[in-house]
Amino acid sequence: MPHHMFKCSECIPERKKHAVIKGEGEDLTSCLPLGYLSTIPGSISERGCAYCGAKHVIGTPMKDVIHLSHGPIGCTYDTWQTKRYISDNDNFQLKYTFATDMKEKHVIFGAEKLLKQTILDAFKAFPKIKRMTIYQTCASALIGDDLEAVAQDVMEELPDVDIFICNSPGFGGPSQSGGHHKINIAWIKQKVGTLEPKITGDYVINYVGEYNIQGDQEVMQDYFKRMGIQILSTFTGNGSYDDLRCMHRAHLNVLECARSAEYICNELRKKYGTPRLDIDGYGFEALSSSLRKVAMFFGIEDRAKVIIEEETARWKPELDWYKERLRGKKVCLWPGGSKLWHWAHAIHAEMGVEVVSVYTKFGHQGDMEKGIARCEAGALAIDDPNELESLEAMETLQPDVIFTGKRPGEVAKKIRVPYLNAHAYHNGPYKGYEGWVRFARDIYNAVYSPLQRLAFLDISKDEIPTDKGFVTRRMLSDASLSEDVANAPGLRQYTGNYDSVSPLREKTYPPFERPSPVEAA
Ligand code: SF4
After folding, report:
1. CA distance 206 to 208
2. Which atom of ligand 1 is nearest to the CA of 71?
3. Residue of 33, 27, 136 whose CA lies nearest to 361
4. From ligand 1's centre to the CA of 266, what distance in Å?
């Protein structure tokens, strides 16, 4: 597996060790790209900072909380409507952004008074919200403001409020991943065990590393509830602050995104002995085996089996419709961290697309190792790419679509490569059986969009065809299919609703008969 030197980065020779091409039968451990190191000067990274990782990824999905940044207003930008971690309390955490808006004078004279006043103002403006998280930024960390002391002062003044402090300034790690770690550890140290939950079931889990992007958590919660499992807390998508204080009482930590949240699972195991089970909500195979694993832990395999059979029968014909039309399409799988290994094999096996490149912005070498292992030979793996490297890779690999974030995604559009938002999704949720079909549908729509064809024309020099009338995606996708495949009985396009999440909020779940004490023993 040789290292790969981008032409555009020849002036930054250290970059060579951050990219490799997977060869046939390579020993994956001998030549992994370097990862989770500080960005090399001269390379303009697409990474976020450690504050961003703590707040924007992990902290803010908590739904019943005022999320306050103690720093300049610019640090908060990414929270305001650019993320899609929805919640069932009317998206409180998405609608408002709070910051102390520090200026130069605060850097000189200190900003603790400003912080206290902002906390009081925020609680006054939203009297029903009694919980707050405060995030340190570079500016407030450098001047040494004591966030804990200010929060303590407020909690004494307002005894019905509770405040969590996250000291994860932007410079607190090489990337957002440093912030993931810091907020995991801060939460367990400060808050876990400070409240006792009401246990209502025999099987109790924390659902960890799940951020409810466009409703993912609510989809997975539906499966758990159908199995009679109580979700004590979700860390942190659609999660409630007080539920998360009760994490110590779960029987099992079910971990979805290991990159961002394995730390708290490991601490819960050390401190409370709670076992950890890693699962995967993406893809029919991975999801089915995940539901089986959780069920096996509690001895309720029959309940998982019913769900897997029902969901597969409902959605597989639709997944296969897209698979026939996506077979052989090339994709650059360029998400932030763990999705490269959650998705690499699953999209190839279940949707037929070829993963020609994987990259990670903040993943560690372990993420690369898993991602590369799940790719086919020839895939280009890149750690912390800069914009020019991404462009060079796209020009060389000629993907039909890329899955990435909005910054590199907009760059891809300029060279007419369609992109799907791998962080916030397009028309998600993407987890769950139906969600996986929605993902396939989004890929299909991106790859075969007639508008995309028009985008390839240069009106200053290309001949514009005027004799073809309009074309639809179906006309484009089915042109090369045999009659048998194009009209295969039993396969069909997505038939779900535009909004697949809201109905779940209305759903009720019949109780399971509780096992007798003898059975339970
Ligand atoms: S690096 Fe520092 S100043 Fe920049 S957004 Fe992050 S916390 Fe704010």
Report:
1. 6
2. 8
3. 33
4. 28
Q: How far is the CA of 488 from the centre of ligand 1 (A)?
A: 54
For the chain, the residue count is: 521
- Distance separating the N- and C-terminal Cα atoms of the chain: 52
Probe target for ligand 1 pocket from 97, 103, 137, with the most ligand atoms within 8 Å of CB: 137
pTM: 0.94
Walk along the chain (521 residues) in steps of 10 and give the mean pLDDT of each run: 89 93 77 87 89 94 97 82 86 92 96 98 98 97 97 98 97 91 98 97 97 97 98 98 98 95 97 98 98 98 98 98 98 87 93 94 83 88 93 96 91 92 93 98 96 81 77 92 96 97 96 70 57
Count of Cβ atoms closer than 10 Å to residue 490 Cβ: 8
- CB distance 250 to 256 below 8 Å: no
CA dist., res. 229 & res. 301, Å (int) = 12
Ligand 1 center–CA 183 separation, angstroms: 16
Number of other CB atoms surrounding residue 457 within 10 Å: 13
According to DSSP, the β-strands at 252-255 and 204-210 are parallel
Hey, what amino acid is at 455?
A: A
Which residues have any ligand 1 atom within 6 Å of their CB? 49, 51-52, 71, 75, 137-138, 169-170
Q: How far apart are CA 378 and CA 384, in angstroms?
A: 19
- What string of DSSP letters covers 287-343? HHHHHHHHHHHHT-HHHHHHHHHHHHHHHHHHHHHHHHHHTT-EEEE--SSTHHHHH
Q: What residue ranges in 413-521 does DSSP mark as E strands?
A: 419-421
Query: What is residue 172's three-state secondary structure?
Result: coil
Catalogue all structural domains in the chain, each as residue range(s) with its CATH number. 50-190 (3.40.50.1980), 204-310+510-520 (3.40.50.1980), 317-486 (3.40.50.1980)
